[in-house]
Amino acid sequence: MSNNEPSRRLEPLLTTEDLAEYLQVPLKTIYDWRTNGTGPTAYKFGRHLRYRACDVEAWIADQVA
Asked: What integer pLDDT is reported at residue 34 of this predicted model?
């Protein structure tokens, strides 16, 4: 990276457990939302699911009734 390029910080990724704790819902609910396609976007790295905070925030905003 050259000196005149802005530095890029990677956004931390949430685990499924992190997301369940953050939303205060059971872990099973997160898995059910994923199965039904109604939860926030998840990214799969091998056997591991991760969620970007910006995707979770956008998903929360879409849930407003």
From this structure: 95
